[in-house]
Amino acid sequence: MAGRVDLDGGKVSPLTICMIGAGGFIGSHLCDKIMEETEHKVYAVDVYNDKIKHLLEPTDGKNPYADRIQFHRLNIKNDSRLEGLIKMTDLTINLAAICTPADYNTRPLDTIYSNFIDALPVVKYCSENGKRLIHFSTCEVYGKTIGCFLPKDSPLRQDPAYFVLTEDASPCIFGPIDKQRWSYACAKQLIERLIYAEGAENGLEFTIVRPFNWIGPRMDFIPGIDGPSEGVPRVLACFSNNLLRREPLKLVDGGESQRTFVYIKDAIEAVMLMIENPARANGHIFNVGNPNNEVTVRQLAEMMTQVYSKVSGEPSIDSPTIDISSKEFYGEGYDDSDKRIPDMTIINKQLGWNPKTSLWDLLESTLTYQHRTYAEAIKKAISQPVAS
């Protein structure tokens, strides 16, 4: 394996990494990248390992990664082994979170505990033991844009200063307390502030990542197939589930919210730059998204319908979308941000990173994987008679 160099031409020494949440969507892709292209070692920490089993238990019986990845099944909220793992590593990456919007209303306490209280020991252990931390936050910390509070006919709504989200300048604007949808964003913002304070007061070396809708194979769950039947995943997985079942895609409050989407493989490249360039990444908060892939949720539904017809060979249903209120879909207490468009100045300056993959291409990759992986299971589930 060829030696790796950082952005300044220096040799990258092999690292030992404690990756918390390694069994999830982002963690599994990051583990793939590290195993396939580097000499770094990973202590993979999670309660499930289904998405990284191919790294832990290869089907041919030979495991080229056996001495470089270890799975540790533990829950960070109540396991004393965590500090020992962090002490043995050079870098901790914390991906653990409850990050499904449907949970923010129905499980606000779990959401707050998972994203703030449970993260406290991780930050503490890194700070006290002099270990570097890469912490995954969210674009939701920005809340609503300044522009959404302007009159609808105001020309300022078109001024990027009022809607493009910048790490060190944009305010974090949330809804009222009874809108429990913001429980996630508030918890994530507070742990960011605590990490920043640990850096300022105690010298913690940290990098904070704010993902903007990372999309690709293995993301989220399909209800009743590889997740709970009553569960509601995030928007792209919701739409995928509808397409696989040949149901109309549900547009919450008309699908007027605007979002940007970035391909997981592009985003993982950004994370690798953070891992291997600490001198450029430490002390920074990075937006990681693709402002060129901006659409309304309604436009996303229309594009996904077209892409799925292409990859599946099935024609679209007669009424491909239906409108539904946020109260009906998510329950009381839901609120939403209007736009999430990341400013990319800081990550481009510090790490030279820019996303590459178009929205159409990332949707085609994702839906091809989902059709191949889930279509037969869903057909079988639909054909089963329902017990009376």
Summarize the structure.
By secondary structure, the chain is an alpha/beta fold. Helix content is 38%, strand content 15%. Helix 2 (53-56) links the parallel strand 2 and strand 3.
Would you give an account of this structure?
With 388 residues, the protein is α/β, with parallel strands linked by helices. It is built from 14 helices and 15 strands. It has helices at 25-37, 53-56, 81-87, 101-106, 108-115, 120-128, 183-202, 235-244, 264-276, 278-281, 297-312, 326-330, 345-351, 359-383; strands at residues 16-20, 41-46, 69-73, 91-94, 132-136, 164-165, 206-211, 214-215, 249-252, 258-260, 262-263, 284-288, 294-296, 321-324, 341-342. The chain has a 7-stranded parallel sheet, with helices on both faces. Strands 6-15 form a two-stranded parallel sheet. Helix 2 (53-56) links the parallel strand 2 (41-46) and strand 3. Helix 8 (235-244) runs parallel beside helix 11 and helix 11 crosses helix 14. The longest helix has 25 residues, at 359-383. The radius of gyration is 21 Å and the shape is globular. The model has no long low-confidence stretch (mean pLDDT 92).
Say how many strands there are: 15
Low-confidence stretches: none
Structural class by sheet pairing and helices? alpha/beta
What percent of the residues sit in helical stretches (DSSP H or I)?
25-40%
Beta content: 5-15%
**Multimeric organization:** single chain
